[in-house]
Structure formats: structure tokens, C-alpha cells
Design goal:
The complex is a heterodimer of chains A (about 80) and B (about 290).
Chain A (H helix, E strand, L loop, with lengths): L1 H26 L2 E6 L8 E4 H9 L3 E3 L5 E3 L8
Parallel strand pairs in A: 1-4
Antiparallel strand pairs in A: 1-2, 3-4
Chain B lengths: L5 H9 L3 H12 L28 H10 L5 H14 L2 H5 L2 H10 L15 H17 L7 H4 L1 H18 L8 H16 L3 H5 L2 H7 L7 E5 L9 H5 L29 E5 L23
Antiparallel strand pairs in B: 1-2
Classes of the chains: A alpha+beta (about 80), B mainly alpha (about 290).
């Protein structure tokens, strides 16, 4: 029974961590992203979900200056 | 046979149909409605470049974010949430890549056994191909996980080649390394049981790492164990369930729970267990067969 109580405590802590990460990532985590064209200075604030979509499309990259940019989607890097 | 909770009896009834449960989950992962919602990751190993992928791949997201020097909070939170609740249960019951291997294992070829130490390669894959190499060398490195992943090869590259061929476009062939990985995988799944899961899968390693602390777990009741070793025979992954019921290599297929005495039962932190003996180390008269 004590083993179950320890497990329950650990699970509770992990779920708290998971909840905190999910809430922060969903609601607060944003990144400034520019377009592919280096002359385009329009900054978009992308949520983590938008970053996930861009990453899944292989469209997110950092330029030579470390700035996040989105390019037209391409196939997975196979 | 020991008394089982309703929860354990449910899984005992469901266990023989595990393959059907895995097949049913394909209707979730293979985007039947065409929604293609890659903003969220699924807790299974399924390439998001596959034409039929509802959700994103958490390993791909981890690797890509590592290459961009970002932290995927939602993906990490999801992995912890799933791991803390059910551990590697999704590996055994929902993963489409695991289903592919399970189906191949049903082909009546001679099955070879993988040494236990091969499971350590999963740490190398997770630490190097998923995290370190993308972080230090970027996505273009040849050992970036997506460039060597057999799931990407089978589920994305091959359909892509078929699509290009049917459209009459020039074909973009995968690298020689990728082709080698695909061919090796396709041979291995007929010779070994779940070779990718047991040797290389980084997602399985993450989930299995929670097996010892997850809310859902396998409970070993020593009072009911008759030392028949049937659980070890039922386990297809070279684990001794009576010694390590929540092993790091376990995919929680729950085959071992089918042993007759019922010493291994699926349980949760919400279950209260009845004490059947004042001294838990002394097997009860009921459990031991008559001599």
C-alpha cells in the first residue's frame, strides 16, 4: 500500500509538471517569425501550435543571423 | 485463480483482441476526415510527412525544435502526461508502427531473439539523433532522426516516390542510408518481434521510462505466484515479468497477465488491494496447488 502511495505522489508531481508545460506552451509560448524573403520585415508572433505546423511541413528555419523564418512548405527531409 | 478487479477483468477480456484495438486506432492516426492537424502531436510513432497523418510526430517535433534551439513545451508536456498516466501502454495498444511490426511477426518465419543489451541503442538514438545532433549540427546532418527514420521512409518517402512516379515528375530518391534503413527494417520485422521498438525507438524509451512510476502499472502479487514461469513464456520481448513487471523494455501488451494463477494484473493507483495473508511473503493456501 505504501508503494502505491509513493507512486501516487510521483504521478501527482508529474501531472502538475505536465499541466504547467501544457498551459505555458499553449497560452504563453510565442516566437517572432519572419517570412522567407530577407527584405520582408513583417514580424508574426507564432504560437507553439503554429510552430508545430510549420515544423511538420519542414517550413521553419533560422537564417544566418539566427532569425526564425518560414518558407513555403516542402517535403519531409528524406 | 486470484480474484481480479473489474479493471483487470476488462483487460483480460480485451487482451486477446489487442491487434484489433491497434487496428481501430488507425482510424485515429490515419486522418480519415482529412483534417491534418499537425499543430498537435500524437503519442505514437507515425511520420507527419505521411499523406495519411492526422497529428504530428512527437519525435520529429522534438528533433526539429532542438535544431531550432527551441523547447516544445506542449509536446514535452504531452509526453509527460501520457507517460505519467499509462507509461508505455500506447506502444502496445495504439502505435501504428508497432502494429506493422506485430502483423509482420505473425508471418510464420523463424523468429530470432534479440539480446537484452540491444535495448540500450534506444538511449543513443534519443540522445544523439533526436537531441544532440540536431542541436549542434542542425537538420541537414545525415544522422538527423528524420533522415534515418524507417517510419518516415515507409510512410512518407515511399508514398512520395509513388506520387511522383504516377504524376510523371522526376523522382526524388531518399539517401542511400535511408534506403538501407528501410530495407533492413523490412527484413528485420519478419525475423524479430518488434525490432524497432526494442532496439531503436526513442518514443518507446521515453514512455517506458515512466513505467515504474505511472498511474497505470502491472501489479505482481507474490502470494498468487506459483513460479510456473508462464508469464515469461507469454512475454515475447525477453522480459521476466515476475521479476520486473514494469520493465524499461515493456510495451505493456499485457500478454503476461494471462498466466493462470493471476499473479500479474493491470492495476492503477486508484485501486485498493485486499490483503489475503497476514504475512505477504507467505503464499496463501488458496494460491498454491495441492501437492
Amino acid at each position: 500500500m505504501k508503494q502505491t502511495q509513493v507512486r501516487a505522489c510521483v504521478v501527482s508531481v508529474l501531472l502538475l509538471w505536465a499541466g504547467a508545460l501544457l498551459v505555458y506552451g499553449s497560452a504563453f509560448h510565442q516566437q517572432d517569425v519572419l517570412g522567407q524573403d530577407v527584405n520582408d520585415l513583417t514580424v508574426t508572433q507564432a504560437s507553439e501550435f503554429a510552430l508545430n505546423r510549420a515544423v511538420a511541413a519542414g517550413a521553419l528555419f533560422r537564417d544566418a543571423f539566427g532569425t526564425l523564418r518560414i518558407k513555403p512548405s516542402r517535403a519531409c527531409p528524406t | 485463480m486470484a480474484d481480479k478487479s473489474r479493471f483487470a477483468r476488462f483487460f483480460a477480456r480485451l487482451q486477446p483482441h489487442r491487434l484489433w484495438v491497434q487496428t481501430a486506432f488507425l482510424f485515429v492516426w490515419l486522418d480519415p476526415l482529412g483534417i491534418r492537424y499537425h499543430a498537435v502531436c500524437a503519442p505514437v510513432f507515425h511520420c507527419y510527412a505521411c499523406p495519411l497523418a492526422t497529428f504530428g510526430c512527437p519525435i520529429g517535433v522534438l528533433a526539429q525544435f532542438s535544431a531550432l534551439h527551441l523547447i516544445p513545451f506542449v509536446t514535452v508536456g504531452l509526453l509527460i502526461l501520457i507517460g505519467a498516466t499509462v507509461g508505455s501502454l500506447f506502444c502496445g495498444w495504439a502505435c501504428p508502427f508497432g502494429l506493422l511490426q506485430d502483423l509482420a511477426a505473425r508471418v510464420p518465419t523463424r523468429k530470432l531473439e534479440l539480446p537484452k543489451w540491444t535495448g540500450h541503442f534506444r538511449f543513443v538514438v534519443l540522445g544523439a539523433a533526436v537531441l544532440a545532433i540536431p542541436y549542434f549540427f542542425g537538420e541537414e546532418h545525415p544522422l538527423f532522426i528524420c533522415r534515418i527514420c524507417p517510419a518516415g521512409g515507409l510512410e512518407a518517402a515511399l508514398p512520395g516516390i509513388a506520387q511522383q512516379a504516377s504524376a510523371g515528375e522526376p523522382i526524388t530518391w531518399p539517401s542511400a542510408l535511408k534506403i538501407g534503413v528501410i530495407v533492413t527494417f523490412l527484413v528485420a520485422i519478419f525475423l524479430f518481434r518488434r525490432p524497432w521498438c526494442r532496439v531503436f525507438c526513442p518514443l518507446g524509451l521515453i514512455f517506458a521510462g515512466f513505467n515504474r512510476v505511472s498511474a497505470f502499472f502491472l501489479h505482481f502479487n507474490a502470494e498468487n505466484c506459483t513460479d510456473c514461469k508462464r508469464c515469461g513464456k507469454f512475454c515475447e520481448y525477453n522480459i521476466e515479468p515476475e521479476r520486473s513487471p514494469n520493465d524499461l523494455r515493456c510495451i505493456r501488451c499485457l500478454e503476461c497477465t494471462l498466466c493462470g494463477p493471476g499473479a500479474l494484473v493491470p492495476s492503477t493507483i486508484l485501486h485498493r488491494r485486499r490483503k489475503t495473508s497476514a504475512n505477504p511473503t507467505v503464499p496463501s493456501e488458496k494460491a498454491r496447488p495441492a501437492v
